[in-house]
Specification:
By secondary structure, the chain is of the alpha+beta class. 23% of the residues lie in helices and 29% in strands. The strands form two sheets. Strands 1-8-5-10-3-2 form a six-stranded antiparallel sheet. The protein is globular, with a radius of gyration of 18 Å.
Length: 206
């Protein structure tokens, strides 16, 4: 009999980091994001999402970069530890854009990718109703269910992994290659989920 612990199933493909941020960082992003909403700093014309309320942050580099740098360091260190040495793993980086999304019932993000080298999404507010809806309905259709974030890589061929999906919780952060196709499913619950996204260029600012 084959012992499971003696088996190894290597994974390869786009390098996606999934972790959590501190509450203090959440509070800052939410406070400043709500300020952008009050000023109506509309960012929709730059985005693929079918979401009515998306706003860009202003004057964010001075406070965002120090808070976000530890997560870029974790991503870079993980790349090196996994022998991915032919990519940009510079300690220096700059953020190209930063915006906040207020996703409501029936809104969604279609399959798309980002500019730059890396992209990320941080979840600031995730109402419990979305998880409850997902649990009740995800087996009724041939999909991953309401409110999921989905990553797609390569073709859906037999004996391969080309799709990864997760149901986000508050404080979750995902960092991934900017070219990686991803999308966000809608939900029907009458709630508002808040997330922050951005694009990063590795190396010195040009």
């Amino acid at each position: 009999m084959v012992k499971k612990k003696s088996c190894k199933f290597p994974y390869w493909g786009p390098f996606v980091l999934e972790t959590t941020i501190e509450q203090e960082f959440v509070d800052i992003l939410l406070e400043k994001g709500n300020g952008s909403r009050e000023k109506n700093l509309d960012h929709r014309k730059h985005l693929a999402g079918m979401i009515d309320n998306e706003y860009h942050y202003e004057d964010y580099e001075s406070w965002f970069i120090p808070k976000f740098s530890p997560y870029i360091d974790v991503y870079n260190d993980a790349l090196v530890s996994n022998w991915i040495t032919d990519l940009k793993t510079s300690k220096s980086w700059n953020i190209k854009s930063l915006w906040i999304n207020y996703q409501k019932s029936n809104e969604y993000n279609p399959p798309h990718n980002h500019g730059g080298d890396l992209a990320f999404v941080i979840y600031l507010q995730v109402p419990k109703e979305i998880a409850e809806e997902n649990k009740k309905t995800k087996h009724k259709h041939n999909n991953t269910g309401p409110g999921m974030i989905n990553f797609i890589y390569g073709e859906g061929v037999p004996y391969s992994i080309s799709h990864y999906a997760a149901l986000p919780s508050e404080k979750d952060i995902y960092i991934f290659p900017a070219w990686l196709t991803h999308y966000v499913d809608s939900f029907k619950s009458d709630v508002e989920r808040i997330s922050v996204s951005g694009n990063i260029r590795m190396g010195s600012k040009e």
